[in-house]
Amino acid sequence: QVQLVESGGGLAQAEGSLRLSCAASGLTFSAYTLSWFRQAPGEEREFVAGISGSGGVKNYADSVKGRFTISRDNAKNTVYLQMNNLKLEDTAVYYCAATTFAISYRGSPPLRNYRYWGQGTQVTVSS
Predict the structure, then answer these.
(1) CA distances (Å), 23 to each of 27, 61, 64, 86, 96, in order?
(2) Is the pLDDT of residue 106 over 90?
């Protein structure tokens, strides 16, 4: 049984930082592209950042480039999202997701290709 469990969400002030973690189990972790998505109230779920199985390829949404960093530790079956210089518009539920489709510098596999999803963690940024 595959499980993705996010943690690290919470309340942060604008210009502050948070670090999200997603611990995976039940899958061959290094074989999967791992990505973070987010969904704000009334909005569609959107791609935030993704990383290839080896960690060598990363891709970011334009809205978070230069502020967020995705990384992974295959020995710990964990993917991270370091979020710096947070903005009010970063407020959302953040989900990690896994797919066997490859990620490239041009973009992420479409949302429908992600087979496994975590339950989400709330990030709230206040002024």
Answers:
(1) 11, 22, 22, 23, 9
(2) no
Q: Dihedral angle at the C-alpha atoms of 109, 113, 117, 123, nearest 10 degrees?
A: 40
3: left (phi over 0), alpha (psi -120 to 50) or beta: beta
Element containing residue 32 per DSSP (H, E)? none
Q: How far apart are CA 38 and CA 2, in angstroms?
A: 20
Residue located via tokens 């943690």: 7
Q: What is the dihedral of CA 50, 53, 58, 60, to 10 degrees?
A: 0
The average pLDDT across 54-73 equals 97
* CB-based contact 27:2 (threshold 8 Å): yes
**Average pLDDT, rounded, for the chain:** 96
> Which two three-digit tokens encode residue 99?
């797919």
Q: H/E element holding 17? A: none
3-state class (DSSP) for residue 41: coil
